[in-house]
Amino acid sequence: ATPTALMVGTGRGAKMGILIKNGEVLEAVNDVKTVIFDKTGTITVGKPQVTDVVGDEAQVLQVAASLEDASEHPLAAAILARAKTAQIKATAVEQFRAIEGKGVAAVINGQTGFVGNDKLLTDFKLDQALTARASQLQNEAKTVVYVGLADRIIGMIAIQDVPKATSKTAIAELKARGLKTVMLTGDNQRVAEAVAAEVGIDEVIADVLPGDKADHVQAFQQTGKVAFVGDGINDAPALTTADVGIAMGSGTDIAIDAGGIVLVKNDLRDVDKALALSRKTFNRIK
Ligand code: ADP
Ligand code: MG
């Protein structure tokens, strides 16, 4: 009987740490052609660490930590941790602003400062040496943020978030099933490509603003059903838009609510297991 098969399937999943929240997703799974992944916290561990500080390290960290103090972004946490290790104390700032997909800005000691990516830099001409160093760091899969103070770039901070140990195997399993794998990220193209190469992802879409993730999912839906795997607040619209939304158990509550399937163990190999289980369960229901 239909409900029995569903219960057996969801029960088996729950034992493996794969929570199937509704039967609806099961129907879509059979026809999934593309699996789209968020990068940070989904393919990578989600605990970025500062690896390089370019410029006067004490000053760059002091300004950056002060500006990032009110931010909840994982990159902010990395900068604050590094400042703490270096025993640098944050200065109080005024007029703090988080600029979605770009960075943060605030007034520090009467001067405007910012920390963020090149989308924040439209008014600056970066000197060649700095640009070259940034590209080099990005090719090493490091995210680069620029630190600006009073109309001047005072330095750069490189931050790395390593792939989870099982991400590469997980992607290979999905590709072996004939599925296309895609990475969708707000991070820079070079960094995204470097991470994608490490784990074997087929296609990269980088520099995506948080509000645009769902549109990219829709574009792939032109060619077949799409599963989206993510963990962040900004992944929620993509998780709901996808035919199968798969949230990381470690993700934000908003992402977990938006996902039809939740991976409790945060292991990307469970994507393949979830797809296989759903397929089995659905075929039994039919
Ligand atoms: P994702 O979650 O896909 O990695 P986000 O949209 O959160 O992407 O961020 C995209 C990019 O915006 C980051 O890689 C970084 O360059 C910049 N950015 C966002 N927030 C901050 C912040 N608080 N400090 C510095 N840079 C930031
Ligand atoms: Mg994420």
From TrEMBL:
Range within the parent protein: 293 to 578 of 641
Name the record gives this protein: P-type Cu(+) transporter
Subcellular location: Cell membrane; Endomembrane system
Protein family according to the UniProt entry: Belongs to the cation transport ATPase (P-type) (TC 3.A.3) family. Type IB subfamily.
